[in-house]
Amino acid sequence: MTALAESGTAPRQTTRPPSDDRPRVRKYTADQVPIGSVLLRMFTGLVVVVVFLLPYLIMFFGSVKTKAEIRSVDPTYFPTEWHWENYVTMWSTPETPLAQNVISTLVISLCATLLVLAVALPAAYYTARFRFRGRLVFLFLVIVTQMIQPAVLTSGLFREFIAIGIIDTWGAMILVNAAFNLSFAVWIMHSFFAAIPKEVDEAAQIDGAGTLAVLTKINLPLVWPGIVTAVIFTFVASWNEFAASLVLLSTPGNQPLSVALTKFVGQYETSWHYVFGVSIVAIVPVIILFMAIEKRLVGGLMAGSVK
Amino acid sequence: MKDLLKALPWIGPAVALIATVVLFPVGVMFWNSTRDISQSGLDDGGVGLANFATVVGFQYFWPILGRTVVWVVGVVGVTLLGSLALAALLDKSFPGRRLVRMAVIVPWASSVVMTTMVVHYGLEPYFGIINSFLVDVGLIASPEGYGWTRHPVTAFAWAMVVAVFVSLPFTTYTILAGLQSVPGETVEAARIDGAGGVRTYFSVVLPQLRGAVSVAVLINIINVFNSLPILRVMTGSIPGYDADTIMTMIFKYLQNQRQIDLASALSVIAFFVVIVIVAVYVRVVRPLKEV
């Protein structure tokens, strides 16, 4: 590999057979790619788009079919009539109190996100800026929580939350979602804080600013993208959480949509059109949020694992 | 010590949250795994390792463990191969690439429960749209279909397909980030030396992806092992234990049988399995040494 790299920078070397008289410096740029392979890439790309969107297209077309059509023994790929009123009638389906489930999902996700921010932001700032005894222990603890997931801990959480009296409450799931997304939030914000030169802080301190003022006035505007990424990631992860909610929340109205919707499966006559309508309503907003942080997702997930 | 006290107001809340919601429940779980707990939740005293003996002695335990291995190895392996190919495509420039990248992200943002439910519906006999498509193209003879979701083996196989589908986005994006850090000069140099596209990829690009691939595989192993919703939706209504993994079995103890002591014992086993997998993996592949 290094040999290849060296021959690249020193083209006069004799590593190639002398008979090879192709131009020595060939720029590896897109404009020289033959049109045929560009078309092939576009075609493959199109196939990928179709495959990745297919389940959600089925969902969407299903959500505007009538119950009779979606359960017809001669199924249609596209709705014969578009029944947009499903999006209104679905809220009064008897399987589960859907409107309450939406409220629960929203409250749990929003509060968990706020809690993560309140707890992770100071920790990320301080560990990126100051060396202190126990700093590495703390950062190791944060990585460990990324390795553990709520599913494996539910039996412990269940007993603990009964003991402290918050079983079957929003508070229980707010704590769980906040704790298990803390790691991502700390690491991405930590990497943003660490990228700000220390001199910026020191200059502000010389001008008489305290630690808190340095954080809020100087650093926050610079780490803003990291904060937005942490907020959106935590919100979407909490929005979709399933395993812990399944066990810790038993009152139907307290449950998030992910748990509530599973009640439709295995019913004698599942109202699939309603399941899909609710799914579309639940999925579209978070997809848009996720796309907004697309470029920074990997950085946040990798940061904790490679440092 | 003084500087730790100074740090406490900043990191204290995070430590408190981790302690209450991660560390303490681990302790509770270990403690409960050695107790006899009634279905109503009453602690009837210590039983040593009897719960572990019951869990391991359960006649379906070893098949469940074997199926868990198939689940993790199969899903992570296929996901890795698919992601390498997808990332290679997304790294090339072509009109519409941004649109393809956005489409790939969709299953990542979407609720896994909801994605699995569409597939479950699609496989239903008679009215399922995937089943009906397979009939239309002639792969299945009768519209009654195969009853994909009724048989443990086929339902489990389809669950693996869904698991690969929802694992692809994260893995692809991680490998894509790795590809973007491969210096263009190394690729160019390989070309100048006369290596073709395939050869360049395997002997120049792929070795440099080691770090990204290791991290992606490690995180995938943890996620796939801990995955509950896909199997819960796809195989949850099948009676018996022929489509269970350790994780779905924990939830069967916990919810269907209300045996929190046995659920805790199996969770402790799962906990150690994860630790062993991560330790062995980190030792063999050393993903944390890179970068």
From TrEMBL, chain A:
Keywords: Cell membrane, Membrane, Transmembrane, Transmembrane helix, Transport. It is a multi-pass membrane protein. It comes from the Bacteria. The keyword Transmembrane helix applies. It is found in: Cell membrane. CDD domains: TM_PBP2. Residues 102-293 form the ABC transmembrane type-1 domain. Residues 1-26 are annotated as: Disordered. The keyword Hydrolase does not apply. The chain crosses the membrane at residues 38-58, 102-124, 136-158, 170-189, 222-251, 271-293. Belongs to the binding-protein-dependent transport system permease family. This is Carbohydrate ABC transporter permease. It comes from Promicromonospora umidemergens.
Automatic annotation (TrEMBL), chain B:
Residues 65-281 form the ABC transmembrane type-1 domain. The keyword Chaperone does not apply. Belongs to the binding-protein-dependent transport system permease family. Pfam families: BPD_transp_1 (PF00528). Gene3D superfamilies: MetI-like. It is found in: Cell membrane. It comes from the Bacteria. It is a multi-pass membrane protein. This is Sugar ABC transporter permease. The keyword ATP-binding does not apply. Keywords: Cell membrane, Membrane, Transmembrane, Transmembrane helix, Transport. Signal peptide: none annotated. The chain crosses the membrane at residues 12-33, 45-62, 68-90, 102-123, 129-148, 155-176, 211-231, 262-282. SUPFAM superfamilies: MetI-like. InterPro entries: MetI-like, MetI-like_sf, UgpAE/MalFG_permease. It comes from Promicromonospora umidemergens. CDD domains: TM_PBP2.
